[in-house]
Design a protein that fits this description.
Blueprint (H helix, E strand, L loop, with lengths): L4 E5 L2 E11 L4 E10 L2 E6 L8 E4 L4 E4 L1 E6 L12 H10 L2 E6 L10 H11 L5 E7 L12 H7 L3 E3 L8 H13 L4 E3 L11 E2 L2 H6 L3 E2 L1 H18 L3 E3 L5 H12 L4 E5 L1 H5 L21 H13 L4 E2 L8 H4 L16 H10 L6 H8 L1 H7 L13 E6 L4 E2 L18 E2 L2 E7 L2 E5 L1
Parallel strand pairs: 2-5, 2-6, 7-8, 8-9, 9-10, 10-11, 11-14, 12-13, 14-15, 15-16
Antiparallel strand pairs: 1-21, 2-3, 3-4, 6-17, 17-20, 18-19, 20-21
Helix pairs in contact: 2-3, 4-6, 6-7, 7-9
């Protein structure tokens, strides 16, 4: 199978022979799409357009474009882990048209100059970069960053990275400011003071001889976030839920009408904490992989609408980062290119939900959270499309990936579906 990803920039191109699928609009047909100046100009059977770049998409499925709500690269500061270009290449290979970048770079994305740098570095790429601004200066939790300056510079929202905001008062203040500027606040819910555990606290941590992280660390953070959002009558997005109690708290809050949304990672939908037993550093995640009962509760919440989105939580690392004892390796894994295939296997192939629900978790859900209009396959809509091969057995090989990160838990594992590329305005990326 050809794994090469080819990029094209063109003001007029014709997508031929693909299946067009947009369950929310009742679209499921085999038609051609003409994209002119970044807009879907025509749709129909056997279209012929003089001067158009023709691309044969027989066997592929075109769906509304995916948006990722949480990825970390390395540039600036750790370009060896991931550059802006390599990270966006990985996003394109994963079918994403846009990706939110957490502010954890060096220096931190807590000022207009850094936002402008990130936007300038990504301007000519097929994938749209959506920088998230730090809530506090340097992500130190001591004083607020200039959130107004960040908003004017073009951030898509605010995020305190993998530390989260410590305390209800800090969260309340951040919510007040984010509401003032009309931007979402992304919170990684954790209660401070539980130490620095490496895996889930339970039988697996005991067998591994490692300090664990209890469910309570997350559950208290989720409860705090919900109560503060309810008190402030403000929107809050909780990221990377992983426990059964967390999703039950979320379910109850939604029933009360609290304006709180949430996501999870595909890794937590597919793996339980037993995956850590071989000390593979690619399974060391934050929050940690949880026991099977939590994984099942999370999958059910994704299927029935309690969770709003699936985010990649892409956190690449290099071999030198991993070539050390497990407690000293970084948290996270490279996941942009495998996110859809892993989630499809965990949810659709297992019979937990249908494909249309999975597409909502990757496209419509993230767009609602960001305040973006939904992507569409209708004439006149901006061309923001993901290209999928829904009959494509393949095996993940790190040496064939676009990312610089070598820390994938899926090395050598096989999947049944694969993103084939994406269309974003005048840009197209296509595998093969």
């Amino acid at each position: 199978m050809n794994t090469e990803l080819n990029f094209l920039e063109c003001g007029l191109f014709l997508l031929k022979g693909a299946r067009l699928l947009d369950p929310s609009a009742g679209v499921d047909s085999c038609e051609d799409l003409l994209v002119e100046n970044g807009i879907i100009a025509r749709r129909g059977v056997d279209l012929e357009v003089e001067g158009a770049e023709v691309l044969d998409l027989q066997g592929l499925t075109v769906v509304p474009g995916f948006v990722d709500l949480r990825a970390r690269f390395g540039e600036p500061g750790r370009e060896d882990r991931e550059t802006i270009e390599s990270g966006l290449d990985a996003a394109a290979a994963g079918g994403y048209t846009a990706v939110c970048l957490t502010p954890e770079c060096t220096p931190t994305c807590d000022n207009a100059a850094m936002v402008e740098f990130l936007l300038a570095k990504s301007r000519d790429h097929a994938v749209t970069l959506l920088p998230l601004g730090a809530v506090t200066a340097g992500l130190k939790g001591e004083r607020l960053a200039d959130l107004g300056e960040l908003a004017r510079a073009g951030v898509a929202g605010y995020c305190e990275g993998n530390t989260g905001l410590h305390g209800a008062a800090a969260l309340r203040g951040a919510l007040s400011y984010s509401r003032m500027f009309g931007l979402p606040l992304f919170e990684f819910p954790r209660e401070a003071g539980f130490g620095e555990g490496q895996v889930h606290e339970g039988l697996v941590s005991l067998r591994m001889g490692l300090k664990g992280r209890p469910r309570l660390e997350e559950d208290l953070g989720v409860q705090r976030g919900i109560r503060v959002a309810e008190f402030e009558e403000a929107r809050l997005h909780l990221q990377l839920l992983s426990t059964a109690e967390s999703v039950e708290l979320l379910r109850q809050a939604r029933e009360r009408g609290v304006a709180v949304t949430a996501d999870c990672s595909p890794q937590h939908l597919a793996l339980s904490d037993t995956a850590c037993l071989d000390f593979n550093p690619s399974t060391k995640l934050l929050p940690p992989l949880r026991p099977e009962e939590d994984r099942q509760a999370l999958a059910k919440a994704a299927a029935d609408g309690v969770l709003d989105a699936i985010c990649s939580d892409h956190r690449p690392a290099m071999f030198d980062d991993l070539d050390r004892e497990f407690p000293y390796t970084p948290f996270g894994c490279a996941s942009l290119e495998t996110a859809f295939a892993v989630a499809h296997k965990a949810l659709v192939e297992s019979g937990i939900c249908q494909l249309d629900r999975l597409l909502e978790l990757f496209s419509a859900g993230p767009r609602r959270i960001l305040g973006m209009p939904p992507a569409s396959l209708e004439v006149g809509a901006p061309a923001e499309l993901s290209l999928l091969d829904l009959d494509c057995p393949w095996t993940y090989r790190g040496e064939e990936a676009q990312t610089l990160g070598v820390n994938s838990p899926w090395e050598g594992q096989s999947f049944a579906v694969r993103p084939a590329g994406m269309v974003n305005g005048n840009y197209l990326a296509l595998r093969g």
